[in-house]
């Protein structure tokens, strides 16, 4: 009989980064509480884990609630699209660079935009109390049109 591989205490549990998506579950949004088990592998290539929550009895895909939930785009392409958008590329340019349709980029943007905004606001709230003062360096301003330089004066 084959022995189940053991992991050291320093290794994180392979499901530690996942939580139960059921809002009525006592383990909802609680990481690494030991309530999740892999029930089966799903998808065309059998590379997506289907999980079972011992607390509420719900089964769900590991992709539930993520940007990858309803997509067939490979992870590398999804990351490239997000990187293009975060660097300020247009939707058309991102689609061209990533070799996908513009509708795919628009869908990713629709899903990722609010998440990025939520993350940004959370970061601001968490660090708001730690910042006591802010300093503006090299603040430049101009009122009116710049003055024209006069022609060279002749010494004579």
How many DSSP-defined strands? 3
Order of helices and strands: EEEHHH
* CATH domain class of the largest domain: Mainly Alpha
CATH topology category name of the largest domain: Arc Repressor Mutant, subunit A
Q: Examine the secondary-structure arrangement and name the CATH architecture of the largest domain.
A: Orthogonal Bundle
- How many helices? The count is 3
Question: Number of domains in the coordinates?
Answer: 2
Mean pLDDT equals 82
N/C terminus separation: 106 Å
Q: In one word, what is the shape?
A: elongated
Low-confidence stretches: none
Rg, Å, rounded: 26 Å
Strand content: 5-15%
Major sheet: 3 strands, antiparallel
Question: Which structural class is indicated by helix and strand composition?
Answer: alpha+beta
Q: Helix content range of the residues, please?
A: 25-40%
Strand ordering within the main sheet? 1-2-3
Question: What does it look like?
Answer:
The radius of gyration is 26 Å and the shape is elongated. The protein has helices at 75-86, 91-98, 102-128, and strands at residues 36-42, 48-53, 59-61. The longest helix is centred in the last third of the chain and has 27 residues, at 102-128. Helix 1 (75-86) packs across helix 3. It has three helices and three strands. A three-stranded antiparallel sheet has the order 1-2-3, with no helix packed on it. The protein is of the alpha+beta class and 156 residues long. The protein has two domains: 14-65; 67-127, Arc Repressor Mutant, subunit A (Orthogonal Bundle), CATH 1.10.10.
